[in-house]
Amino acid sequence: MQLPDLNTVWFILVGVLFTGYAILDGFDLGVGILHLFVKNDHDRRILLNSIGPVWDGNEVWLVTGGGALFAAFPGAYATVFSGFYNAFMLLLVALIFRAVAIEFRSKETGKTWRQAWDIAFSLGSFLAALLIGVAMGNITRGIPLNAEGDYVGTFIGLLNPYSLLLGLTVVALFAMHGAIYLVLKTEGALQAEIRSWVPWLIGAFLVLFILFNLDTFFECPNLLGVMRNRPYGFAVLILNIIVALSIPGIIRAGYEMGAFLASCLTMVLLMAVLGISYFPNLVISHPDPANSLTIYNVASSQKTLANMLVIAVIGVPIVLAYTASIYWIFRGKTKIGHVGY
Fold it and tell me: What whole-number distance in Å separates Cα of residue 41 and Cα of residue 44?
């Protein structure tokens, strides 16, 4: 059996890191999106405390994924981060306001103070999820690149209907993921209320997801051709939908952790479909595919990839162990005590 080359290994590793970010920060962004739907101040504090010990650590995965992309494929990193500069600045603003809202909300007890930060928290979460989806939509559809691999489009051009549709799909996905996480972390009347949201959120996600895939047939015929040559990609896509549809039944059966793991698997399968359809591309040039960036024409040297792989083999298990320990320490239902938000 032929082993994958270092370029392919790093394509998979970068994908794993961004998938980890989508799973971990996805549910706490989802909690933020749903935050304003809970009217009681005590219940809103429950929502904040459910993600309190982990939300900042979850965002480290985004930094790690960006660092891995820079180390392994610097040409793609330069194109994406310069071309999407304004969008990423907006994303950072959303994440910063969200973080400040979490920390500042409970510094005062005034109703107006807390409501203002609640709005900042929820809007920051919504905008961050939307922009992540818009960025992924543009990567999937392709962006205008010149022969040197530089982005030659505009910020407004990134806000095309196809990418905005994926942005809304990601918002629905994260809201669904966050609601399932909250079912796991809450109890009583609050849990019952959130539990009733889950089927609707799954339905909204699946409708948007199916519409996005239908639109992909028209917007990205090149990806459809790739998937025809890789039929296992369609199998993963179908499995993805089946897993998402199984979540309400798992919740009704009382397997809250099982439902959350199924939600995580849904996101893993989504990223797998993207990877299968996209490989070996990193950034597709649209409308001129000849200018596309691949894992071979923008990669670091083989020596760099090999040395970085040694560092990753040492570092990634440490990150995983740390993440697992934090979630184990703060397992169980969330309660309001003398320490918290």
Answer: 5
